[in-house]
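Researcher: We plan to redesign the surface later, but first we want a full-length starting point. Tokens attached.
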């Protein structure tokens, strides 16, 4: 999606430059410099958007990993507690029966 936006932006800049040069008979170097500045601004904006999206994805992945680790730790603790309770109950039953 971002690549499509970038390509469209560059195409618009090229068309605008051609029209300005054709209609206004402006010095081509000035128009080309302005067009290059516009292209650089668009590229920088796209790069910033991509970097922000990557940061958001990384943060989401980190959150998921942390939640999974917490759930695993809680499940292990619950399993250990259940096993200890079962062992204590069995020992108490065996001692009471004897």
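Model: Full-length starting sequence:
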């Amino acid at each position: 999606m971002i690549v499509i936006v970038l390509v469209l932006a560059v195409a618009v800049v090229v068309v605008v430059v051609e029209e300005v040069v054709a209609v206004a008979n402006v010095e081509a170097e000035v128009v080309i410099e302005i067009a290059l500045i516009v292209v650089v601004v668009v590229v920088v904006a796209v790069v910033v958007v991509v970097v922000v999206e990557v940061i958001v994805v990384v943060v989401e992945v980190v959150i998921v990993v942390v939640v999974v680790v917490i759930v695993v730790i809680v499940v292990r603790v619950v399993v250990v507690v259940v096993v200890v309770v079962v062992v204590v109950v069995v020992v108490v039953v065996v001692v009471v029966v004897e």
